[in-house]
Design brief:
The protein contains 9 helices and 5 strands, in the order αβαβαααβαβααβα. It is an alpha/beta fold and 210 residues long. The chain binds shikimate-3-phosphate (S3P).
Length: 210
């Protein structure tokens, strides 16, 4: 029996999750978005719900380098980090299905965007500035926020990055609600987008879901 995509009611959830896994095949679900968007927290729970692996690109970079991201930035500089980030994500994308959380700058690289298009379905967790600021101010491990006013830095990054993030297959609003509600919104958006792609008569791109 083939599970149906796009089932929204609670009783159909299990079937819908199985259908998402079927439609995904060996591709990765790739979470993109600014620092504080919830990529890791939502990604972990999403993988758990879909019963597939979760991998965090930043942790993999740290493991490959034997250094924290702050140490990599301080010792080698940002371009070195970005080159490593591109290589690590290309490698990770070879092994799906999985949920892959990427660092906020990763999707800005054209090679990485192309690799994600080939091997994954991209989901932009979009959040407004106050939500992002509240979340990033709780932690101090991010080198881009180590100097300067976080509000100015984040606003600048939003201006630079949001037009590129908007190329993602799916957009989900990362509101200030429990992560599990965001996960449900992501699952629903995935079911809709993958279901649409599956229908042979409908070649339209997956919709932007907000
Ligand atoms: C960065 C975001 C960080 C990390 C690095 C650079 C960015 O990841 O990759 O500090 O350029 O936005 P998170 O988005 O997971 O915080």
């Amino acid at each position: 029996m083939t599970a149906a995509l796009g089932e929204g009611k609670k009783g159909d959830r299990t079937q819908s999750l199985a259908a998402i896994r079927d439609a995904l095949g060996a591709r990765s679900i790739v979470l993109i978005g600014l620092m504080g968007a919830g990529k890791t927290a939502v990604g972990r729970r999403l993988a758990n719900r879909l019963d597939i692996n979760f991998v965090d690109a930043d942790s993999e970079i740290e493991e490959a380098a034997g250094q924290t991201i702050s140490e990599i930035f301080a010792e080698h500089g940002e371009p070195y980090f970005r080159a490593g980030e591109r290589r690590v994500i290309a490698r990770l994308l070879e092994t799906g299905p999985q949920v892959l959380a990427t660092g906020g700058g990763a999707y800005m690289n054209a090679d990485t965007r192309a690799a994600i298009k080939r091997n994954g379905i991209s989901i932009w967790l979009r959040a407004d500035l106050p939500v992002l600021l509240r979340r990033v101010q709780r932690r101090d491990h991010r080198p881009l926020l180590a100097d300067g006013d976080p509000q100015v830095v984040m606003r600048t990054l939003m201006d630079e990055r949001y037009p590129i993030y908007a190329e993602a297959d799916i957009t989900v609003e990362s509101r200030d609600v429990p992560h599990d509600l965001i996960v449900t919104a992501v699952v629903d958006a995935l079911a809709e987008a993958l279901g649409r792609k599956q229908r042979p008569a409908d070649q339209a791109e997956p919709s932007k879901v907000r």
